[in-house]
Amino acid sequence: MKQLLIIEDEVKIARFLQLELEHEGYSVDLSHNGREGLNKALEGNFDLVILDVMLPSLNGMEVLRRIRQTSDLPVIMLTAKDDVMDKVMGLDLGAQDYITKPFAIEELLARIRVLFKLKVPAIAPSQIQETLTCSKLSLCPEKYEVSYDNTPIALTKKEFELLEYLMRNKNLVVTRESILEKVWGYDYLGDTNVVDVYIRYLRNKIDQKFQDKLIYTIRGMGYQIKDATNN
Predict the structure, then answer these.
(1) pLDDT tens digits along 146-200
(2) Is the domain of 155 the same as that of 187?
(3) Is residue 216 in a domain?
């Protein structure tokens, strides 16, 4: 039986979720503040945490940050804010999914089922050291390094994974949906704007910084990375 932890300060919502999830066959524990929830998440044997953002004692983002310091425990974030940047922050800190209140319980159950179906990471570690290149841009998955013409580029974890996915599909058009599935590691059911935000981050750090256009928007389809035509 899968063990779930709900960290939610609204007692009625937490109890409703607990009853619905137990009806679906999950074992559920509750916490109503961030600090207690963090301790339970780190000390317990849970398969998934459902984590509200607005919490007393410690907010959900800080709880997630501390969990990720020592654990890869799957986390689904809950929030009353429908803000892309909040979603980006949560996903960049390592949340597997993000759902905005109010939501249908069927949607949450579907996302949980998808998470538990995963068997392997979306981007498997390379067995041999390799270097991916595009124009003067180089990416080494094993060393977790990116550089342009030997100048190092600092990327966040999700930026690195997105760039790696694009470079592994160099000259091919990849859709937003495929990026969400492969980079975020599950069949994402929500807003695809998070991909556009991360593409903008990469363009700021690569295309604009080095004045070398590599990442292209293919209208109505998705994105493509290819060698610059001026090289």
Answers:
(1) 999 999 999 988 899 999 999 999 999 998 888 887 887 655 555 668 889 999 9
(2) yes
(3) yes
**Terminal C-alpha separation, the chain:** 57
Q: Which structural domain range is residue 195 located in?
A: 132-225
Beta strand 132-134 pairing with 48-52: unpaired
3-state secondary structure string across 132-148: EEECCEEEECCCCEEEE
List the one residue out of 190, 46, 11, 193 whose CA is nearest residue 108.
190
pLDDT of residue 82: 66
The tally of domains found in the chain comes to: 2
Please indicate, yes or no, whether residues 68 and 161 belong to a single structural domain of this protein.
Answer: no
In whole angstroms, give the CA distance from residue 142 to residue 127: 9
Count of other CB atoms within 10 angstroms of residue 222: 19
Shared domain check, 136 and 110: no
pTM of the predicted model as reported, rounded to 2 decimal places: 0.56
